[in-house]
Amino acid sequence: MKPSDDFQAPGLELFQFPPLWPGAPYWLTKPTLMAGVGALLVCVLLWAAFAHPRLVPRGLQNIAEMGYVFVRDQAARPFLGKDADRWMGLLLSIFLLSWIWNLMGVIPLVQLPVSSFLAYPAVIAFTVYVVKIYVGVRAQGARGYVGNLIPRGLPKLTYVLLIPLELLQNFVTSLFTHMLRLAANMFAGHVILAFFSAVGFWFLFERPTLLGVPLGALGVLMAIVMTGFEMFIQFLQAYLFVLLTAMFIGSSLNPEH
User: Fold this and answer.
1) Of the candidates 104, 115, 160, 248, which lies 20 to 30 Å from 190 by C-alpha distance?
2) Which of 10, 244, 14, 238 has its CA nearest to residue 120?
3) For residue 175, is it within any domain?
4) Tell me, what's the pLDDT at 1?
5) Number of folded domains in the chain?
6) What is the mean pLDDT of residues 9-15?
C-alpha cells in the first residue's frame, strides 16, 4: 500500500483557509465571513425579540428573555450586584455571540467554530480588558485601582512576591486566560470531531475492509456522541466566557468583593 493510501488524521489544515475568491484580501476568508454572519445574527435576533416587546412574551421574545434571565442571574448579579442591569446589554451580546460562534462548529455545511480562531475571542477579551481598566480607574482612581489589587494585612515579606504576581495576573495573564480558554476548547473539540468523522468516512467509504468496517462504524458512533458532548461544551464555554467578563468588570467596580 502506498503512503498516500494510508489514513491521514486531520490536523492544522482544518484551520487554514484561502481568501474567498482569487484576488480577495488575504484576511477575507471563511472564518471572517462566519464571524460577521454571527455578529449580524445576534443583532437580528435581539432586534426581532425586543424591538416591539409584549407584556406577556411569546415566541422569540420568550426565548430571548430566558437567555437574558440566565445571563443576569448566573453571571451578572453574582459579580455586579446592583449594577448588573446596566451591563446586561454587553453581557448578553457577548454570551450570544460566543455561543453562536461556537455552535457553527456543528452546523452542517458550516462546520467551523469561529471561536477556535484566537483572533476572534481575542477582540472581545481585549475590549473587556480595556473596559475593566477604564471602569476601575473611573470608580476608584488610578492609584486606588492599582492599590486595591493588592490584599492587605499580610506579612511584609510576602509582598515582595505577591505584588508582582498580582499585577501580572490583573494586567497580563487575565487577558490571555480569557481568550485562550475559549479558543483552546473550541480548537480541541473541532479536531476531535473531525478525527472521528474522518475515521468513519475512511473505513466505511474510502477503504472498506472486513476489519475496517467495524472501526468505521465505531468512528461514526463516536462522532455522533462527541457532537452531542461538544454542543454542551460550546454552551458551557460561552457561559464561562461571559462569566469571566462579569467577574473582571465587577472586580473593578466593587474591589471589596
Assistant:
1) 248
2) 238
3) yes
4) 39
5) 1
6) 90
Of 138, 140, 136, 132, give the one whose Cα is nearest residue 178: 132
- End-to-end C-alpha distance for the chain, whole angstroms: 65
Q: Is residue 104 scored above 70 in pLDDT?
A: yes
Instruction: Please state, as a whole number, how many other Cβ atoms lie within 10 Å of the Cβ of residue 230.
Output: 23
pLDDT value at 142 more than 50: yes
Q: Alpha-carbon distance 217 to 201, whole Å?
A: 9
Please state, in angstroms and rounded to a whole number, the distance separating the CA atoms of residues 208 and 136: 62
Cell 481598566 belongs to 133
Amino acid, single-letter form, for residue 82: K
Which pLDDT tens digit goes with each residue over 54-95?
888 888 999 999 999 999 999 999 999 999 999 999 999 999
Which DSSP letter does residue 75 get? I
**Residue type at 136 in one-letter notation:** G
| Three cell numbers, residue 121 | 475571542
Closest by CA position to 219, among listed 207, 231, 232: 207
Rounded CA-CA distance 29/212 in Å is 36
Whether residue 187 is predicted with pLDDT greater than 60 in this model: the reply is yes
Residue 112 in any domain: the answer is yes
If we measure between CA atoms, which residue out of 184, 10, 38, 182 comes closest to residue 104? 38
Rounded (to 5) percent helix, strand, coil in the chain: 75, 0, 25
CA distance 227 to 251: 36
Distance, CA of 178 to chain centre = 9
The answer to pTM > 0.85 is yes
Grid cell listed for 69: 434571565
Q: Does residue 75 lie in a domain region? A: yes
Residue 194 lies in a domain: yes
Give residue 47's domain range.
26-253
**Contact status, residue 67 vs residue 92, Cβ threshold 8 Å:** yes
d(Cα 99, Cα 91) in Å, to the nearest integer?
12
